[in-house]
Each structure stands twice: as structure tokens, then as C-alpha cells.
Amino acid sequence: MSDISAAPTLVVGLGCQRGCPVSTLLALLEQALQAHQIQLHEIKALASIDLKREEPALNELAAQLGLPVTYFSSEQLAAYEQHLTHQSQIAFERTGCYGVAESAALALAEQLAQAPAKLLIARQKYAQATLALAGAA
Questions:
Q1: How many Å is the Cα radius of gyration of the chain?
Q2: Which of 26, 42, 82, 137 has the smallest CB count inside 10 Å?
Q3: Burial class (CB in 10 A: 0-12, 13-18, 19+), 122
Q4: Cα end-to-end span (Å), the chain
Q5: Which of 12, 70, 14 is closest to 41 using CA atoms?
Q6: Long-range contacts: 87-91, Cβ < 8 Å, 24+?
Q7: Which among 53, 17, 5, 28 is positioned nearest to 121, based on CA atoms?
Q8: 123 Cβ partners below 8 Å, 6+ apart?
Q9: How far is the C-alpha of 115 from the C-alpha of 117, rounded, in Å?
Q10: Is 60 exposed, middle or buried (0-12, 13-18, 19+ CB in 10 A)?
């Protein structure tokens, strides 16, 4: 039996096009959280694919929010393929996995909580970015 009072580990997975402005990521994040009544302070970390490690907007967003950002390889993310709500052929051709935002969120939530994670916000697409939110109890 799980402890209901334990706050879930909430993680935001992000994917973005090269050169995506940090304002786009922030707008997408705020919009998604607001729509699902989740407070920013409840988010524990950000996640993406290692191909985006040098992407200024992701690192800026993490710095602005004071959150750690973890990057996963496409091999690590491919393990979550069967959990994705949307499989993008374009994402696969570019990254080697079918969905960066959802799989990165799931991978990190699971890693941090040491428990199975589930998608709480399925892939949201906005301008040059995608976002998903996963939680693990």
C-alpha cells in the first residue's frame, strides 16, 4: 500500500527544435501546468534527449526555474516506446526514438522515484517544442 501523503515525483520532459527560444519553452510549460492545476514548485526536474545537451533554451529554462535537467540517450528513451501516446516518425529519424518529451519524462520520473512512472500530461506541442509530464509515486 502506498503512502498517499507522499508527493509524487513530477518531471517535465521537453523536446525542442534547434534555436527554440526559452520563452517558447516557458510558455508551453506554464500553459500545461495551468491546464492541469499543477504548481511549478511541484516539478522536481526537467528531462530531454542527450542530443539537446547544448541547446541554450533548455539550459536557460532549467537555470531560470532552478531545476536540474537530465539528458538521456536515444537507447535509454527507446525503452519507453510502448508507453508513448504519440509516436513521431520525424522524431525517430532525427533522434532514434519515437518521442523525446514523453519518454524523457517517464525515464527521469522512474529514475528519481525508483518506481514505475506514468504520463500525467501527454505530449503537448507548441511552436518549436514538445512537453510531457510524468509522475511516479
A1: 14
A2: 82
A3: middle
A4: 11
A5: 12
A6: 91/15
A7: 28
A8: 84, 85, 86, 99, 101, 102, 130, 131, 132
A9: 6
A10: middle
| Residue indicated by cell numbers 511549478 | 40
Angle at 29 (CA atoms; ends 101, 117), nearest 5 degrees: 45
Which residue is listed with cell 509524487?
Answer: 8
> What is the spatial distance between Cα 109 and Cα 85, in angstroms, rounded to a whole number?
17
Backbone angles phi, psi at 103, to 5 degrees: -70, -35
The pTM is what?
0.93
* CATH class belonging to 9-136: alpha beta
How is residue 52 written as a grid cell?
Answer: 539537446
- How would you write the pLDDT of the chain (137 residues) with one tens digit per residue? 344 445 689 999 999 999 999 999 999 999 999 999 999 999 999 999 999 999 999 999 999 999 999 999 999 999 999 999 989 998 999 999 999 999 999 999 999 999 999 999 999 998 899 999 999 98
Under 8 Å CB-to-CB from 70, ≥6 apart: which residues?
Answer: 45, 46, 47, 48, 104, 108, 111
